[in-house]
Amino acid sequence: MTDKHPVQDLVEPIIEDLGFEVVRIMTIGAKNPTLQIMIERKDRKDLIVDDCATVSRAISAVLDEKDPIEGEYSLEVSSPGLDRPLTKLEHFERFSGYEAKIETKKEVENRKRFKGKIISVDENQQIVFDMDGAEYRIPYETIGKAKLILTDELFNKYMESQADVELLTK
């Protein structure tokens, strides 16, 4: 789907060893660039600030030593949020039933932009997508960008998961 960031091979093993998964790595801005690394916990529990700080400290040491990025930059380690980017095939499977926006690198059925509901992922690695009652099959490898859309349904599901966590901790 998306091209690998130049630091991905350097930082991803460290992040994974700490119990996290990389969602996306990108550089934002040109004049004062920020290296943004979105992570989530492998156990799918909520990410907390201390998690981001732990990952930031661990990868800062390696980034300082290897110096893979020219010039000065800021490092930002964060959660993908509710309206998260979908960057892996597994994300489309996990968030089936939710609304998303998808932009393709080349036309699929005469269009490059889709906004609707993820139905499933088929055996050919195509995203089965419902848009305005029409079904589209979007080959995973053609996707340039994709993200969930924050809806009441997604928010309510998140709030239910938080209530479950509170019950477990009481």
What does this structure look like?
- The chain is an alpha+beta fold and 170 residues long.
- The protein has two domains: 8-78, GMP Synthetase, Chain A, domain 3 (2-Layer Sandwich), CATH 3.30.300; 89-152, SH3 type barrels (Roll).
- 31% of the residues lie in helices and 36% in strands.
- The protein contains four helices and eight strands; from the N terminus they run H-E-E-H-E-H-E-E-E-E-E-H.
- The chain has helices at residues 8-17, 49-66, 89-94, 152-169; strands at residues 20-28, 34-41, 74-78, 99-108, 111-121, 126-131, 134-139, 143-148.
- The strands form two sheets. Strands 7-6-5-4-8 form a five-stranded antiparallel sheet. Strands 1-2-3 form a three-stranded mixed sheet, with helices on one face.
- Strand 6 (126-131) and strand 7 form a beta hairpin.
- Helix 1 packs across helix 2.
- The longest helix has 18 residues, at 49-66.
- The chain starts with 7 loop residues before the first helix and ends with a helix.
- The model has no long low-confidence stretch (mean pLDDT 91).
Keywords:
single chain, 170 residues, alpha+beta, GMP Synthetase, Chain A, domain 3, SH3 type barrels, 2 domains, five-stranded antiparallel β-sheet, 4 helices, 36% strand
User: What's the end-to-end separation, in Å?
Assistant: 42 Å
Indicate the multimeric state.
Answer: single chain
What order do the helices and strands follow? HEEHEHEEEEEH
Helix content: 25-40%
CATH superfamily heading of the largest domain: RimP-like superfamily, N-terminal
Measured by DSSP, the beta-strand proportion falls in 35-45%
CATH topology of the largest domain: GMP Synthetase, Chain A, domain 3
Secondary-structure arrangement, i.e. CATH architecture of the largest domain? 2-Layer Sandwich
Low-confidence stretches: none
Strand order of the largest sheet: 7-6-5-4-8
